[in-house]
């Protein structure tokens, strides 16, 4: 195990931050590190909105479901899947550019996710902490209006970045055997059952209190309702027609 692997396996979501600014030069280097991620066909279908306005940050707290660390972190980034730039670049050659394809939605979403994870790793390597904010998709139209996002651009998630002011435990992951399958998809019920027990003990022992739950019980509320059912209509309206 080298230092890079140790860093990757020590990730924790940070939700409490010191009142300390990240140097602008460092933030720029983090974004450059993000840009070094793999990108489908060199399309680079992403844009990152650095939200520095305090009023906007406070509004985003409400739009993301009251996640106060959106405002209290040193910096907050909104990662956007962006097909506007590559579509316009293709059109500028005089060729016909087809938009609204499902593949374009997938490519842009994957591209921006790879960029964000590179930034997360780079940030943690410099002693910073991060927290992804999927709550950006709770109110994607309001976020889009706030940030003036044009057609063919949608907000995928946010990221809080700052210097950690707490030291949370590392949350366990599924056993490797559950996710690494050889040659074909195989049943993983045995590993899920074992992981439920692991998570139960984790919740009982972790810092800051305990709760009577496990992995499967935590997932149940995510699947007993149509979560963010507004996303399909929103994406179509944004030009991602999923044709």
Question: In summary, what is this structure?
Answer:
Its EC number is 1.5.1.38. The protein has 11 helices and 4 strands, in the order ααβααβααβαβαααα. It has 243 residues and is α+β, with helices and mostly antiparallel strands.
Could you explain how this protein is built, in words?
With 243 residues, the chain is an alpha+beta fold. It folds into two domains: 3-168, 3-Layer(aba) Sandwich (NADH Oxidase), CATH 3.40.109.10; 171-226, no CATH class. The chain contains eleven helices and four strands. The chain has helices spanning 3-8, 24-35, 54-63, 69-72, 84-91, 102-125, 140-147, 176-179, 189-205, 215-223, 231-237, and strands at residues 46-51, 75-82, 129-133, 153-162. A four-stranded antiparallel beta sheet has the order 1-2-4-3, with helices on both faces. The protein starts with a helix and ends in a 6-residue tail after the last helix. The mean pLDDT is 96.
């Amino acid at each position: 195990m080298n230092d890079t692997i140790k860093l990757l396996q020590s990730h924790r979501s940070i939700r409490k931050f010191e009142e300390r600014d990240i140097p602008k030069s460092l933030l720029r280097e983090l974004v450059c590190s993000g840009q070094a991620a793999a990108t489908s066909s060199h399309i680079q279908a992403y844009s990152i909105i650095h939200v520095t306005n305090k009023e906007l940050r406070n509004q985003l707290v409400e739009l993301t479901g009251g996640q106060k660390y959106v405002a209290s972190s040193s910096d907050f980034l909104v990662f956007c899947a962006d097909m506007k730039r590559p579509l316009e670049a293709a059109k500028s050659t005089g060729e016909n550019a087809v938009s609204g394809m499902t593949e374009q939605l997938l490519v842009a979403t994957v591209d921006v996710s790879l960029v964000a994870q590179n930034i997360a790793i780079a940030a943690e390597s410099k002693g910073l902490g991060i927290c992804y904010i999927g709550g950006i998709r709770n109110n994607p139209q309001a976020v889009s209006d706030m940030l003036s996002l044009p057609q063919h651009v949608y907000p995928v998630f946010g990221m809080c970045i700052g210097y950690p002011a707490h030291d949370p435990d590392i949350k366990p992951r599924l056993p490797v055997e559950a996710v690494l399958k050889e040659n074909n998809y195989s049943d993983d019920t045995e590993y899920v059952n074992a992981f439920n027990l692991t998570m139960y003990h984790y919740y009982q022992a972790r810092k800051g209190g305990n709760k009577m739950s496990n992995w499967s019980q935590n997932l149940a509320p995510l699947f007993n309702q149509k979560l963010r059912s507004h996303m399909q209509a929103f994406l179509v309206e944004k030009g991602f027609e999923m044709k």
